[in-house]
Amino acid sequence: MNSRQATTAIHLTAVLFGLTGIFGELIQASAVLITAGRAAFAAATLLLSMIRAGHRPVWPNRHALPVLLAAGVLLAVHWTTFFVAVKVGGIAIATLGFASFPAFIILLEGFLFKERTQAYEWVVVGLVTAGLVLVTPSFDSSAATVGLGWALASGLSFALFTLSNRKAVGLLPARELACWENGIVALLTLPWCLTEFAGLRPLDWLWLSILGVFCTALAHALMVTSLTHLKARTAGIVIALEPVYAILFAALLFAQYPSARALAGGALIIGAIVWAGLQRNTAD
User: Cα dihedral angle (265, 117, 102, 68), rounded to 10 degrees?
Assistant: First the structure.
C-alpha cells in the first residue's frame, strides 16, 4: 500500500464507520442484540483472517487479560449506548453526540495519566461543549435530548475504551487485540439477548453481518493498514468526518434532516476536532 492508497483506505474507513448508525436504524432489534451480533460477526471474521494468514491467537497472559476485559466491557457499553441513541434520538443526534469523545479524552488524559493539557486542547473542549449546546434541541425530556444523553454516554465510554487501549496495544498484535475485544463484547452481551435472535428477519441477519464484517472487521483492518503510511493524527482528522457521512446517508436514506442549529453545532464539534488534529501535527 502506498500513501495514496492509504489515504483512500482511511477515507473508506470513515465511510464504513459512518454507516454504523444507518445499520443501527435498519436493524429491527434491540441495541444489545445489535451489539452482540456486530461483535460476534467481527470476531469470527478477524479470527478466520488470522487463521488464513497462518496465525492462531494465543490465550492472553496475566498482564494482558485484565486490560482486555476492561477494554471489552467499555466497548460493549460504547456500542450499546450508541445504538440506543440511534433508536431514541436519530442518526444525526447519535453521531454528533458521540463525536464529543475527543474532548472526553483530553479531560481524562489529564486526570488519569497526569499529562499536561495544552492551551489549544482546552479551547477544543470549550468548542465541543458549545457545539453540544447547539445540538441539544431542548433541555427537557424530548426524545432527541434523551438520545443525545445516550450519545454522550457512548462518547465517554469510547474515550475510556481508547485510553484503555493505550495499555493494551503493546501487549498483542492489533488484529489479535481487536479479535479478543470483539469476542469479549459478544460473550458479555449474548446472554442478554439470545432469545431475541429467533425473531430476527432474514434482512436483519444480512444487515448484522454487513455491520460486523464490513463496518467493524474490515474498517479496523483498513485503519490499521493505512497507519503504516499515515500519521495516527492524520488518520484521526479523516475519521472525524464520520458524522458528516452519517448525516448525509441518513438524509438520503431516511429523510432525517438535522435542524440548522444542530448542523451549526455539528460543524463546531467537527471543526474543533479537525483543528486539534492540525495543531498536534504542527507540534510534531
Answer: -160
Question: How far apart are the C-alpha atoms of 121 and 103, rounded to whole Å?
Answer: 8
Residue 252, number of CB atoms within 10 A of its CB: 10
**Per-residue pLDDT, 54:** 86
How far apart CA 15 and CA 13 sit, in angstroms, is 5
Q: Alpha-carbon distance 154 to 162, whole Å?
A: 12
Confidence of residue 70 (pLDDT cuts 50, 70, 90): very high
Give me the residue label for grid cell 449546546. Answer: 133
Across the range 143-153, mean pLDDT stands at 90
Q: Which of 236, 231, 245 is nearest to 272 (CA)?
A: 236
Cα separation, 82 vs 35, in Å, equals 9
CA geometry: angle 106, 70, 22, nearest 5 deg: 70
Query: Could you give the CA distance from residue 79 to residue 144 in angstroms, rounded to a whole number?
Result: 18
d(CA 182, CA 192): 16
Burial of 263 per CB tally in 10 Å (0-12, 13-18, 19+): middle
Lowest pLDDT segment from 17-21, 203-207, 278-282: 278-282
- For the question of whether the overall pTM of this predicted structure is more than 0.85, the answer is yes
